[in-house]
Amino acid sequence: MQATPRTADQLRKLTSAILQAGGSAAAEADLVADHLVQANLAGHDSHGVGMVPSYIRQLKAGLVIPNTRAKVVKDDGAVLMFDGGRGYGRCVAGEAMEAAIARCRQTGVVAVTLANAAHIGRVGAYGEMASAAGLVSLHFVNVTDHRALVAPFRGTDARFVTNPVCIAIPGTDRQPPLLLDMATSAIAMGKVRVAKNEGHLVPEGILIDENGKPTRDPNVMYREPSGALQTFGGHKGYALAVVTELLAGALSGGPTIQPGNVRKGGTINNMFAVALDPARLAGVDWLRREIDGFVDYLKGSPPADPSAPVLVPGDPERRARQERGRSGIEVDATTWEEILQAAEAVGISREKATALAS
Ligand code: NAD
Predict the structure, then answer these.
(1) Using one digit for the tens of pLDDT, what is the confidence trace for 120-157?
(2) Which atom of ligand 1 approaches the CA of 269 most closely?
(3) How confident is the model at residue 78 (pLDDT cuts 50, 70, 90)?
(4) Contact 29 CB / ligand 1 (< 6 Å)
(5) Residue range of the domain that includes 155
(6) Are residues 149 and 282 in the same domain?
(7) CB 222 within 8 A of CB 246
(8) Which atom of ligand 1 is nearest to the CA of 39?
């Protein structure tokens, strides 16, 4: 289907207007809108403005509560616990990370948890907050309140969600920050949505159908009984997803997805994160020396395909930002229609919505 490129500013303006019409204060709407657009710019359309319809559906169902601040549950030195109260994830997770970063300046290391946040989006955004402050951070996130989407290794049906992991390391004078930020499923669920909306098949090894058989058809995730995503890297991705579920869902006091916990149908993220100050370990100079030396060494490997050089985590997103900053963000026709319907659901006519994004 036809995709229309839009600028980041157009998408920000429209998204912010929809969220404000849904009850968010302007600052909240702008923050969430920018977060979604930044995901598009980074090349992760799965976590971009295509999430707006889901956010508005959940808002209408009372599963997302606008203008909610993160509530401190525990403040105990190097341990901070927050409850997100179903607030927009970017806002409450941002507050939890800001508090962790400030505390880390005193304690050198902080373990922070956030329970019960509405979808926090691209987890890399929180890693980037830590790197910008010169800190290393590790983030483990689970997803609850939601139907299961990912099958356990050797299983045939979905039992958990896409449990992302992020590890961020600050950059040097030469090397931008390194950012590992990935779902533990073979691809993020939003990428299945994008494939469905664009009418594409997904690559092999990503999905199974309702009978547990491999398939490339993204529609298996949108019917009942449903298919399931598989974890990345077979048993290893599965093992990482299991511990991520427990770190994020059990340590935070937010639940894991086990059936003893209520599912209302929202997208709740719980996060366990650690921020640490490299100055308190082997030191910043040593870290920088080793980053530069190691990254140079990696990138010196002759590429198997000369048009695809060796990269490090964070490079693809930086490249996408440059490219999409120039050429715009393509929004496929199905996603665009869903966004217009979300606008209408909060009282913005499609003509006005289209004008906001023009
Ligand atoms: P992905 O597979 O595109 O990329 C994952 C990581 O691999 C990135 O850190 C990237 O820099 C790195 N990478 C890619 N190509 C590389 C290369 N050639 N060399 C070195 N490193 C390379 O990401 P994904 O798994 O589809 O996840 C997409 C986004 O979805 C992430 O931002 C994640 O936080 C988000 N997500 C969020 C939730 C949630 O519930 N909030 C759930 C799942 C995923």
Answers:
(1) 999 999 999 999 999 999 999 999 999 999 999 999 99
(2) 40
(3) very high
(4) no
(5) 68-185+231-317
(6) yes
(7) no
(8) 32
